[in-house]
Design goal:
- The chain is α/β, with parallel strands linked by helices and 380 residues long.
- 38% of the residues lie in helices and 16% in strands.
């Protein structure tokens, strides 16, 4: 029951308050009325949710498996938070080199080989790369080969323990050592010197946040998220996927715009519908420090910079890919978050070279773990 109602587009906020055991700060009158009409139902729902949580056996975690060796003079503002498997370690090295700031990386080990072997791979990769040693805190999450959610299918190879993307995301955010985080992906590389680029606009970002939090007439605004325009670059083959991808990221906004015109990179809105609300043309034409407004809608999944203590948690029950960030962003939008677009910072998401991915198996997992409607929608 909780899964079906929680996934309903109109129930996210009300259910979250029911789960939290609170009724304050509900975003709209409709939600408030819904909550008042359904107190008994929500008390039952809360009990169901607690019972459901007992069915989760979260993977074993080893936080700060490797700690970054920061310089004494480093002033950290924003941590890039990401999640990946060991085959993405070269991309993590590129991310560290390009962002040149703190990175919190949750790595799922044991996915392809015994976790003891993959942990050694992680340690070796970290020890051989100066950028990773300086910037990256590594937290390992162990694939025990036992499904972490009991309704997942079993005895069918790698698919029986689905990739816990949101558990990994939450782990990387939880371990970040700064107040602000940049939500990224394992295939994503930021603009060169990304942390310094954010620093150059930090005063304006803080001013914008204060303005919107204290703005009269808006009602209570829980937070501000700065959307990061993201782009897509193809990977020619598996060997190309392991190159130092930071060298392929456009060095400036002007170079980025030229790369779009030359079809070297694509706007994410041309690849994924979940990025269509960003006005890429207006952002590419922008040459000042103006923070454009972002028209949040229910289906959008932008990457963003946000203050981590204001962010709702990700849905740990989600498996696989596609729509994985949506419940968190819906909660943010429905509770009144303000979304602005950063004027200079951007990131490039490189095409994934998947390793043994079996879409049919993923769909089977979804079919057994979610209501059938969402499984069918994903598979289609």
């Amino acid at each position: 029951l909780w899964l079906v109602v929680y996934k309903g587009e109109n129930a996210d906020v009300a259910v979250q308050h029911a789960v939290d055991g609170s009724t304050a700060d509900i975003a709209s009158g409709r939600d408030a009325a819904l909550s008042q009409r359904s107190q008994l139902a929500y008390r039952k729902l809360q009990a169901s949710f607690r019972a459901l949580c007992k069915r989760l056996s979260l993977p074993q975690r080893r936080p700060f498996f490797k700690r970054r060796r920061r310089n004494p003079g480093d002033i950290d503002l924003v941590t890039l938070c990401t999640q990946l498997t060991v085959d993405r370690l070269p991309r993590l090295a590129s991310t560290a080199a390009s962002f040149a700031g703190p990175v919190s990386a949750a790595i799922f080990v044991g996915r392809y080989r015994p976790f003891e072997i993959e942990i050694e791979e992680v340690a070796a990769a970290w020890g051989e790369n100066e950028a990773m040693q300086r910037y990256v805190d590594i937290h390992v999450v162990i694939d025990s080969k036992t499904p972490w959610f009991k309704s997942a299918i079993g005895n069918e190879g790698r698919g029986d323990d689905p990739y816990p993307v949101n558990i990994l995301r939450q782990e990387s955010i939880r371990r970040a050592q700064t107040e602000w985080i940049f939500l990224a992906e394992g295939d994503m590389v930021s603009a060169p010197n990304g942390h310094e680029l954010i620093r150059s606009t930090w005063g304006r970002m803080v001013t914008e946040e204060k303005h919107h939090l204290l703005s009269p007439g808006r009602g209570k605004t829980p937070g501000v998220a700065f959307v990061v325009p993201s782009y897509y670059a193809p990977t020619k083959d598996r060997d190309d996927a392991q190159l130092r991808l930071s060298e392929r990221v456009p060095k400036s906004k002007d170079e980025l715009v030229s790369a779009v015109k030359d079809d070297k990179v694509k706007r994410m809105s041309d690849v994924y519908d979940s990025h269509k609300e960003l006005n890429y043309q207006a952002w590419e034409d922008l040459r000042n420090d103006t923070f454009m407004s972002y028209n949040w809608t229910m289906s959008m999944e932008p990457y963003y910079i946000g203050r981590k203590d204001t962010l709702p948690p990700f849905d740990p029950l989600f498996m696989g890919m596609g729509g994985d960030k949506r419940s968190q962003l819906r909660h943010m939008g429905r509770t009144g978050f303000v979304f602005l677009v950063h004027p200079h910072f951007y990131a490039v998401n490189f095409e994934s070279v998947r390793r043994g991915m079996d879409p049919y198996t993923i769909c089977q997992v979804l079919e057994k773990s979610f209501c059938g409607y969402h499984a069918r929608a994903f598979c289609q």
